[in-house]
Amino acid sequence: MQLWGQEIQVLMENYEYMVKKMSRANITIVSGFAKGIDSIAHKTSLLTDGKTIAVIASGLDIVYPASNLSLYREIEEKGLILSEYEAGVKPFKSNFPQ
Q: pTM value?
């Protein structure tokens, strides 16, 4: 693994550690639903039986990114998914927080 990859790995491990600590301290994790850091936050919170809220940039009937479908379903069961958009609204770039 190259140095950059090693640095990213260390950052991810530190981030997971922080999310675990927050979840165990009964702090609710609130994040977007993108691949990467958002997904890691939700997954880590769920693994530690923490509370998690995903804020999405589409209607609740559209899972984006589609690769997060299983995570979406798990958050539906164990957490909360929020959207300010009506059903059917696609995740346009302008829907994401700036």
A: 0.87
Question: 75: which residues sit within 8 A by CB, 6+ positions away?
Answer: 42, 46, 52, 54, 81
Q: Could you give the C-alpha distances from 26 to 15, 19, 52, 58, 94, in angstroms and in order?
A: 17, 11, 10, 28, 33
In tens, the pLDDT along 41-94 reads 999 999 999 999 999 999 999 999 999 999 999 999 999 999 999 999 999 989
Asked if 56 and 30 touch (Cβ cutoff 8 Å), the reply is: no
Compute, in degrees rounded to 10, the torsion defined by CA atoms 56, 72, 47, 35: -60
Whether residue 21 has pLDDT greater than 90: yes
CA distance 44 to 67: 17
Can you tell me the distance from the alpha carbon of 46 to that of 25, in angstroms, rounded to the nearest whole number? 14
Q: Report the chain's C-alpha Rg in angstroms.
A: 14
| Residue 60 burial (10 A CB sphere; 0-12, 13-18, 19+) | middle
